[in-house]
Amino acid sequence: MSGSPFRAPVMWVTGNRWFRRMATGALGRPLASRFVAGETLPEAMVAAEELRGRGIATMLDHLGENVSAPEQAADAAKAYVRALEAIGGAGEGLDAAISIKLSQLGLDFSTELCVAHVERVLEAAAGVGRIVMIDMESHAYVDRTLAVFRDLRDRHDRVGVCVQSYLRRTASDVKELPPASMIRLVKGAYLEPHELVFTERREVDRSFRSLFVALIEAGHRVHVATHDPRLIEGAKQYVQRHGLDPSRVEYQMLFGIRRDLQRRLAAEELPVRVYVPYGAEWYPYLTRRLAERPANMWFFLSNLVRSGR
Ligand SMILES: Cc1cc2nc3c(=O)[nH]c(=O)nc-3n(C[C@H](O)[C@H](O)[C@H](O)COP(=O)(O)OP(=O)(O)OC[C@H]3O[C@@H](n4cnc5c(N)ncnc54)[C@H](O)[C@@H]3O)c2cc1C
């Protein structure tokens, strides 16, 4: 959470050129593999098949954000189409979606360019009967991300978007969502200006709970995307108490995090999906995972130093 006193110092360390060189070099890569399935699509597919074997669905994310040239946005769209082809080729038994970032698909260049790329990805997804979720990035992208989502939702059923409980604005944003949408609810992973976010953990959690109820009551399908056992338990109890159709709520976690909890929920026959990131541009993703937990940063640094001796 943005309010964590740890997030800013970790972002400062990971922004350092020396640290970045070490972390993305031969020493850091094996450590990053805890959070990233690999650099290639075949590696991501292996991870997806392994999770399928445990009764867990997946959502592939070809890592990359804030591309610096329009051609890179076109390449990212092609990478997603290839991922969907691979998923389709694996057959109906592989329940795998994909997740995209609009900044990776050219939102910084133009909304029209970005929408055109997303439409190509959505057509490929419709061809293989899969869904496409739009990640939520930092606060500067929220208005544009929601506007693109609303526009696409008019023409496509298989698209959903993420909302973040740490942002104060989200309670009012969710009132403007198109009816019966697919919404991923997360706490939020970016270092944001304090005035825009809830800074206390309990406020972020309270916002998460009330957004969950608001989204369900408004008729949306909700992806409860957290590793926080209390929030997951609260969602499970709500579903039971209100006799909701189990397909209204899915539990989602990140690759390599709380695998015990992933397995436990799958054993309870609840719908569980794991976000499987892959690709060469894994560093920004890794920095967010390090910033979420002091122990991760400590583990990463001590292993870098040890293996560098
Ligand atoms: C499927 C999915 C999609 C996501 N998509 C987005 C998105 O589009 N935009 C966005 O801003 N954020 C996204 N996130 C990240 C999210 O915002 C949080 O930063 C992240 O999930 C950590 O918060 P938490 O809800 O797990 O709760 P926390 O309170 O941070 O963590 C609860 C417990 O989970 C475990 N845990 C959490 N993080 C880690 C970690 N990095 N390493 C080891 N253990 C950990 C610990 O046991 C911790 O006590 C996504 C998360 C998931 C699960």
Care to give the gist of this entry?
By secondary structure, the chain is α/β, with parallel strands linked by helices. It has one domain: TIM Barrel.
Give an overview of the whole structure.
- The chain is α/β, with parallel strands linked by helices and 309 residues long.
- The chain has a single domain (37-281), classed as TIM Barrel (Alpha-Beta Barrel), CATH 3.20.20.220.
- The protein is 49% helix and 14% strand.
- The chain has helices at residues 7-14, 17-24, 29-32, 41-53, 70-89, 111-127, 142-155, 170-173, 201-217, 229-241, 259-267, 283-292, 294-308, and strands at residues 57-62, 96-100, 132-134, 159-164, 182-186, 221-225, 249-254, 272-278.
- Strands 1-2-3-4-5-6-7-8 form an eight-stranded parallel barrel, surrounded by seven helices.
- Helix 5 runs parallel beside helix 6 (111-127), helix 9 runs parallel beside helix 10 (229-241) and helix 12 crosses helix 13.
- It is globular.
- The model has no long low-confidence stretch (mean pLDDT 93).
- Residues 135-136, 162, 164, 184, 186-190, 225-228, 252-254, 257-258, 275, 289, 292-293, 296 line the site of flavin-adenine dinucleotide.
- The site of flavin-adenine dinucleotide has 24 residues, from strand 4, strand 5, strand 7 and helix 12.
